[in-house]
Amino acid sequence: TARKRERKRKKKGERKSGRGDKRQHKTSPPLGFEGGQTPFHIIIPKYGYNYGHRVDTAHPVDLTQLVNGRGVHVDPLKRQYGVQLVEEGADEFDALVNLEVQWASELAIAAVESKGGVVTTAFYDLRSLDILRQPVPFFQRGQPIPRRQLPPQDLISSYTDPKCRGYLADQEEVRKAREELALRYGYTLPNLEQPELLAMLSKRKRPRQIFFGLAPGWLVSLADREVLKPTDPQLLEYYAAP
Fold it and tell me: Could you say which protein family the record assigns here (predicted)?
């Protein structure tokens, strides 16, 4: 007698994954299926729309603009305190910008100021830094803007030094340091006469201020598109304290 042929059992999804590939009997996998691996549209992170994908130099540039422009990534959880401006690409730099960073080398400062720009080094504590790099989630929580903390004792000398363009330095001393740096590197500071550019380049934050144009204690309502300001005398005294 002929030996009965035993049917070989296979594991589920061993050969064709139950789909097949024979003409009209085949079943195509869903769009984006990559053999069970993580699809590309999940691996690649989502980015919001950024017109031009560039930083708008018509306004002062701080950490908010640099992060939103995908230029840098700062993580306060890793104790990253901001951006360091280095001299790489100084020969190719050609922009008029009011730039605020946390540290800048001498040659990098010269590259910006030779084009008529301004560099300011400013300290942010980790909470203020997190608010500055992601302002929209903070505004959605409905909390007032806190006061920025002053730098620790070992950084006071750096942020009060006009040669470092510290935000706590005297502006007259900063002007003299700009002239000395221009004389050292052999360039002439541009004489800007346009009122709009002068107003943009002269904008500075106060030592306790986090955002340009928004003071500590103010509350930004994104839903109502309004800025709420405190009126209580005690709150005004607290947020106005140095």
Answer: Belongs to the universal ribosomal protein uL15 family.
